[in-house]
Automatic annotation (TrEMBL):
InterPro entries from the UniProt entry: dCache_1, HAMP_dom, HATPase_C_sf, HATPase_dom, His_kinase_dom, HisK_dim/P_dom, HisK_dim/P_sf, Sig_transdc_His_kin-like_C
GO cellular component: plasma membrane
PANTHER family in the cross-refs: HISTIDINE KINASE (PTHR43065:SF50), SENSOR HISTIDINE KINASE (PTHR43065)
Protein name: histidine kinase
Pfam hit, one: HATPase_c
Localization annotation: Cell membrane
EC top class, as a word: transferase
Length: 735
C-alpha cells in the first residue's frame, strides 16, 4: 500500500528555515536595542524630573525657613522691649540705659539693629555696621533735629564721636507705619538713613499702662542679608533663586546685586518681568502667563519654562510670616545641570546595543546556515519518502544533535520500509480484533461500574477515628517495647563502658591487638557518641509516644462513649493532626495559633464526636484564611499574618464555652443563615460536601444539648462559639 500525501506545497512558496532563524533573532535584538534606548532616555527624563522636583522643594523649604528665621528675631526682640516698657521695667526716657540694653543685644548677635523713637522726637539707635563696628546714635528731644553718632568699644562705652546729622524719627517710614496702624507691622522697603542700603523695618508702637502712646520701637532688617544668603544656597550648577512680592516686584536675588533703583532718597523696586537678568525675566513672564499675576498664586507651584531653547525647572512658594510679609521664593534649575552625564550614558548604551545587534546578526547568519543545510537535506529526503521512495538516507551532520537526528532518520526509514510491508498484512487482522475487543471492553466496563459502586460504599463505611485509633494502636505497642527497653540498653551500655574504663585502669598496657582495635574503632569517640546516640533515641521514642497519645486522644475509640475529658487535650490533639496545614509553605508564612485557655473542669461528653466538631471548625478556618490569601502577596500576608485564636472559658457553674476565631475574609450576612444547612457550601466544586458544619451543629445541639453560633464580619473575620454543659443532660444520647 503506497503512502499518499493529500496536499504538498512547494518549498519555494513557504518560508525558508534560514529566514525563520535569522529574522526573529534580529527582530528580538532590534526590539531590545530600541526598548533599551527608549527606556534609557525615559528613565533619564524621569530621574531628572524626580530629582529636580525634590531639589526644588528642599531648596524652597530651606530658603523660606531661613528667611522666616531672619524675620522672627526682630519680632521677638521688639515684643520683649515693648513688654518691658509697658510694664515699667524699661524707661523710654532713659536714653543711656536704652543704649546699654541695645548694645548688649546687638553685641550678643541677637539682632544687628535696634532703635526707639519717642513721641517727643527723642531717639536712640544701636547698630552693627557691615564692617563689624557697633555704633550708637542718640538725639534728645531738646536737640532736634540733631543726632550724635558714636563708636562703641567692646564694653559698650563711647570711645569716638563719628558725626552729627539731622534726624527726626517721627518723619521716618517705620515710625509713621507703626503710628498709623497702631500695631506691630512691617514697613515698606526704604533707604536706610545711615546709607544707601535697602531696608525693611519691623515697627512696634509703644504704650504706657494707661494706653498713652509713647513712641515706636524699631528693628531694621537689611535686604542684603537675604541676597547674601541666596548666593550661598547651592542650586545645581547654574541655578538661580530670587524673592518677589505679591505685586511681582523683585526683593532679592542670588545673582542680581542690587535688584532696585535709587533716585536720591527714594527707592524704586523693579518688576521681576522687567529686570535685565534673562532667567528672572523669562520666569516671571511665564508665571504671569500661567496664573495671570503673582497675586493669584495661593500655594506651592512647580512648572517648566523654556529660556533660550533650554528647559528650566521652576518652583514658586509663598513666603509669609503673618505680620505683613507676603512674598514668594522662586527657584530656577536648568535641565542642563543634570542631563549632560545622563545623555552621555544614554549614547554609550545605544552604541553598545547597536554593536551587539551587528554581532548577533552576523552570528545568526552563520549559525542559521550551519543548522539549515542538514535540516534541508532531511526535509528533501522526507519528501521523497512521502512520495513513496523509501530508499532514502542522509549523511550525519557535524552538529551532534543533527547527527543524532540524521541517524534516527535513517533507522526510521529502514523500519518504515519493513513496517509498511507488515502493515498491510496486519490491517485485516486488526479489524477482526477490534470487534472482539469491543465486546470484551463492554463487559469489562459493566464489571468496573459494579466494582466502583462497591468500593465507594466500602469507603463511606470507613471512619477517620477508627483509622487514627488503629494506626496509634499499632505504633504504640512496638514503640512501648522500644521505649521500655531503652532504659535497659542505656544502662547496659554504661555498664559496658565502665567495664572498659576499668580494664584500661587495671591493665594500662594493653596488647598490640587491643591497641590496634581501640585505634580502629576510635574508642574515645565511640564512648562519647554512644551515650549521645542513646539519649537521642530516647528523646525520639518519647516524641513518638506523645504523637501516639495525641492521636488516641483525638480518636477516643479506646475509651467509653460518654466520658469526662479534658477539652484542652482534644483541642491540642486536633491541632497536632492539622499541623501540616498550619505550618509555613511557599505561598504563605505559618498560620499563628493563639491559645487563651481558661481553667476548665473535666467535661462529660462524647470525646470523639466533639473532636470531630473541633476538626471541622478549624479546617473551615484554615480554608477561609487560604481563600483570603489568594489576592495577597507573601509580603502582605507576612505584614498582616493569618491568625486563629482559641479561647476557652466557664460561662457559669453548668456551662463552658469554646470560641474559635480567624482573621480571614469573613462570611457575608446573606450567607450566614445557611451555613448549618445540609449540603450548603461556599467552597468550589470538589473541595466541600456541605455536611461538615451541619454534622457539627447536630453533634453540639442534639448530642450534647449545647449551642453552636457563628459571628462574622466581612473583611474582619469569623468566630464560631461552642457552648456545652459540663454534665451531659439525661436524654442527650444516641437516638
Amino acid at each position: 500500500m503506497a503512502l499518499k500525501v493529500p496536499v504538498r506545497q512547494s518549498v519555494f512558496k513557504q518560508l525558508s528555515l534560514r529566514l525563520i532563524l535569522i529574522v526573529p533573532f534580529v527582530l528580538q535584538i532590534s526590539v531590545a536595542v530600541g526598548l533599551t534606548g527608549y527606556l534609557a532616555i525615559r528613565n533619564g527624563q524621569k530621574s531628572v524630573n524626580t530629582i529636580t522636583s525634590q531639589l526644588r522643594s528642599e531648596i524652597s523649604s530651606n530658603i523660606n525657613q531661613q528667611i522666616l528665621t531672619y524675620l522672627e528675631k526682630p519680632y521677638i526682640v521688639n515684643q520683649m522691649i515693648a513688654a518691658g516698657i509697658a510694664e515699667g521695667q524699661i524707661s523710654i526716657t532713659d536714653m543711656p540705659a536704652l543704649e546699654q540694653l541695645y548694645w548688649r543685644l546687638v553685641n550678643q548677635g541677637t539682632v544687628d539693629f535696634l532703635q526707639t523713637g519717642t513721641a517727643t522726637g527723642a531717639n536712640v539707635l544701636v547698630e552693627r555696621l557691615e564692617e563689624g563696628l557697633i555704633v550708637a546714635r542718640t538725639g534728645e528731644a531738646s536737640d532736634l533735629p540733631k543726632r550724635q553718632s558714636y563708636r562703641l568699644d567692646h564694653q559698650g562705652r563711647r570711645v569716638e564721636q563719628l558725626k552729627t546729622q539731622e534726624f527726626d524719627p517721627r518723619t521716618r517710614p517705620w515710625y509713621r507705619a507703626a503710628q498709623e496702624n497702631g500695631e506691630l507691622t512691617w514697613s515698606e522697603i526704604f533707604i536706610a538713613a545711615s546709607g544707601s542700603r535697602a531696608t525693611i523695618s519691623l515697627s512696634q508702637p509703644l504704650y504706657s499702662k494707661t494706653g498713652r502712646f509713647l513712641g515706636v520701637q524699631n528693628n531694621n532688617f537689611r535686604l542684603a542679608r537675604i541676597h547674601e544668603f541666596l548666593k550661598r544656597v547651592a542650586v545645581g550648577q547654574t541655578g538661580q533663586t530670587f524673592i518677589v512680592d505679591r505685586s511681582g516686584k523683585l526683593i532679592a536675588s542670588s545673582v542680581v546685586e542690587q535688584p532696585y533703583k535709587i533716585q536720591g532718597e527714594v527707592l524704586n523696586l523693579v518688576a521681576a518681568k522687567d529686570t535685565e537678568n534673562s532667567v528672572i525675566r523669562a520666569t516671571a513672564n511665564a508665571l504671569i502667563d500661567r496664573f495671570g499675576s503673582f497675586g493669584q498664586i495661593a500655594q506651592v507651584q512647580q512648572l517648566e519654562v523654556q529660556i533660550n531653547g533650554e528647559r528650566q525647572f521652576v518652583q514658586i512658594s509663598p513666603l509669609q510670616d503673618g505680620r505683613g510679609i507676603d512674598w514668594f521664593s522662586v527657584v530656577v534649575i536648568p535641565e542642563s545641570d543634570f542631563m549632560a552625564e545622563i545623555d552621555a550614558n544614554t549614547r554609550t548604551t545605544i552604541l553598545l546595543c547597536l554593536a551587539a545587534l551587528m554581532m548577533a546578526t552576523i552570528v545568526g547568519i552563520y549559525t542559521s546556515q550551519w543548522i539549515a543545510q542538514p535540516i534541508l537535506r532531511l526535509s528533501q529526503a522526507s519528501e521523497a519518502i512521502a512520495d513513496g521512495a523509501f530508499d532514502q538516507s542522509v549523511n550525519p551532520s557535524k552538529v551532534r544533535e543533527l547527527g543524532v537526528l540524521a541517524r534516527s532518520f535513517n533507522r526510521m526509514a529502514q523500519q518504515l520500509r519493513e513496517s509498511f510491508t507488515a502493515l498491510a498484512q496486519t490491517n485485516e487482522q486488526l479489524e477482526q480484533r477490534v470487534e472482539e475487543r469491543t465486546i470484551e471492553l463492554s463487559n469489562t466496563l459493566q464489571e468496573l461500574q459494579r466494582t466502583q459502586s462497591q468500593m465507594i460504599q466500602a469507603e463511606k463505611m470507613s471512619s477517620l477515628g477508627q483509622l487514627v485509633a488503629g494506626v496509634a494502636h499499632e505504633i504504640n505497642n512496638p514503640m512501648n517495647f522500644i521505649h521500655g527497653n531503652m532504659t535497659h540498653v542505656s544502662q547496659y551500655a554504661r555498664d559496658l563502658l565502665e567495664l572498659v574504663q576499668l580494664y584500661q585502669q587495671e591493665f594500662p598496657t594493653p596488647t598490640a591487638a587491643i591497641e590496634a582495635k581501640v585505634e580502629e574503632i576510635d574508642l574515645t569517640f565511640l564512648t562519647e557518641d554512644m551515650l549521645k546516640l542513646l539519649n537521642s533515641m530516647k528523646l525520639g521514642t518519647e516524641r513518638i509516644q506523645e504523637i501516639v497519645k495525641s492521636l488516641r486522644t483525638f480518636s477516643r475509640l479506646d475509651e467509653a462513649q460518654v466520658k469526662e475529658v479534658n477539652i484542652h487535650e482534644g483541642l491540642e490533639s486536633t491541632l497536632l493532626i492539622l499541623q501540616h496545614r498550619l505550618k509555613a509553605n511557599g505561598n504563605r508564612p505559618e498560620i499563628l495559633v493563639m491559645r487563651d485557655y481558661g481553667d476548665l473542669p473535666l467535661v462529660e461528653c462524647y470525646p470523639g464526636q466533639l473532636n470531630q466538631v473541633f476538626m471541622n471548625v478549624l479546617v473551615n478556618a484554615i480554608d477561609a484564611l487560604e481563600e483570603g490569601n489568594v489576592k495577597r502577596t507573601y509580603q502582605e500576608i507576612k505584614s498582616n499574618p493569618n491568625q486563629i485564636v482559641i479561647r476557652t472559658s466557664i460561662v457559669n457553674a453548668a456551662w463552658i464555652q469554646i470560641a474559635i476565631a480567624d482573621n480571614g475574609p469573613g462570611i457575608s450576612e446573606a450567607v450566614q443563615p445557611y451555613i448549618f444547612n445540609p449540603f450548603f457550601t461556599t467552597k468550589p466544586v470538589g473541595k466541600g460536601t456541605g455536611m461538615g458544619m451541619s454534622i457539627s451543629h447536630q453533634i453540639v445541639t442534639e448530642k450534647h444539648g449545647g449551642k453552636l453560633d457563628c459571628f462574622s464580619t466581612v473583611g474582619v473575620g469569623t468566630e464560631f462559639v461552642i457552648q456545652i454543659p459540663i454534665r451531659l443532660e439525661v436524654g442527650s444520647t444516641d437516638a
